[in-house]
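thought: user wants a sequence for this fold. calling inverse folding tool.
action: design(structure=
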């Protein structure tokens, strides 16, 4: 291990790079004598030509980790110089092609995904191995590459205690319910909006946080006790997770081709904020959630989400126990040592 050298040749996908390698496995690899660097592949015209020679001098023979995509100039440069490097992994945590074709997603996002999808065959050709975030996403690539593996998401955040369950519920200390998905999950959120409307209009002991900022649906923004903070950059969101506590997290996931490639990372995110989650009753959540033990699995109809919310709200002691169990399970299934062993074996 003392001679191992890893380089993340980055297109800017910092959350994915950090979760699956830089903040999970890399610290241990460094302790064991490996060198790990991150080099941003600039999109500026001629960047690969200008910097490629120095990159080659410094990293010849190194293992490379490519995440999602590369600027076209760097992709062409790497194709010309592929034999100068060792093992190359292509790390992917979304079905990019499905995202490009999903008309429910924001137009700018779809356009960006279409650009990545057009380059993906060339990235696959460069890679010795495709590393995905779930078994289901891995199955999508098995017909497109001879070596495909799944590395499920590690837990990066320290797990909190559950003291926040002791001082509620009351109008002075209300239930904290949160949705912290991106705009890519806006349709998932809208599908359960009737349940959230009924909750906020019929009770006065619940606060709902939807981290979409100006993109929050108007029908939800108009409800009482709804907060809509702006989405945070990755590192700021990590700090936010450590500082804020949830009682209940919401993770709806409709049956779409794009969603079928998702990981169970929301289970870890909700546990990291001390909460218990309500999840769509489908993969990937069915892999980690045991109904009524460490979360709730509910069907897609809004009435099922309403019933799930009421079940948690009306039995605070059971909800607290579920949150505690979710934390224990997140610690087990999200053990970063799994990522360490995965990359050590490459």
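)
observation: tool returned 346 residues.
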């Amino acid at each position: 291990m003392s001679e191992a050298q890893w380089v993340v040749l980055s297109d800017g996908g910092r959350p994915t790079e950090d979760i699956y390698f830089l903040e999970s496995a890399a610290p241990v690899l460094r302790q064991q004598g490996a060198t790990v660097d991150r080099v941003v592949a600039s999109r500026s015209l001629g960047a690969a030509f200008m910097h490629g020679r120095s990159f080659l001098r410094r990293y010849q023979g190194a293992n490379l980790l490519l995440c999602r995509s590369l600027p076209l100039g760097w992709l062409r440069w790497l194709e010309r110089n592929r034999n100068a490097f060792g093992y190359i992994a292509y790390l992917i945590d979304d079905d990019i092609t499905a995202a490009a074709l999903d008309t429910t997603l924001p137009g700018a996002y779809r356009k960006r995904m279409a650009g990545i999808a057009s380059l993906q065959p060339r990235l696959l050709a460069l890679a010795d191995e495709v590393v995905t975030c779930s078994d289901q996403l891995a199955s999508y690539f098995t017909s497109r590459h001879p070596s495909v593996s799944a590395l499920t998401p590690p837990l990066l955040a320290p797990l909190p205690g559950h003291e926040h369950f002791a001082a509620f519920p009351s109008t002075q200390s209300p239930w904290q319910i949160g949705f912290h998905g991106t705009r890519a999950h806006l349709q998932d959120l809208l599908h359960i909006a009737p349940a959230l409307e009924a909750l906020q209009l019929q009770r006065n002991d619940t606060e709902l946080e939807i981290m979409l900022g100006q993109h929050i649906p108007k029908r939800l923004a108009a409800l009482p006790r709804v907060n809509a903070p702006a989405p945070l950059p990755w590192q700021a969101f990590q700090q936010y997770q450590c500082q804020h506590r949830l009682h209940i997290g919401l993770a709806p996931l409709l049956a779409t081709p794009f969603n079928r490639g998702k990981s169970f990372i929301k289970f870890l995110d909700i546990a990291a904020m001390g909460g218990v989650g309500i999840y769509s009753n489908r993969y990937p959540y069915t892999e980690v959630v045991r109904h009524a033990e460490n979360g709730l699995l509910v069907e897609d109809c809004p009435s099922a989400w309403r019933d799930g919310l009421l079940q948690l709200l009306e039995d605070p002691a059971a909800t607290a126990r579920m949150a505690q169990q979710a934390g224990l399970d997140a610690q087990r299934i999200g053990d970063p040592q799994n990522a360490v062993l995965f990359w050590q074996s490459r």
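thought: summarizing for user.
answer: Here is the designed sequence. The chain has two domains: 5-151, 163-333.
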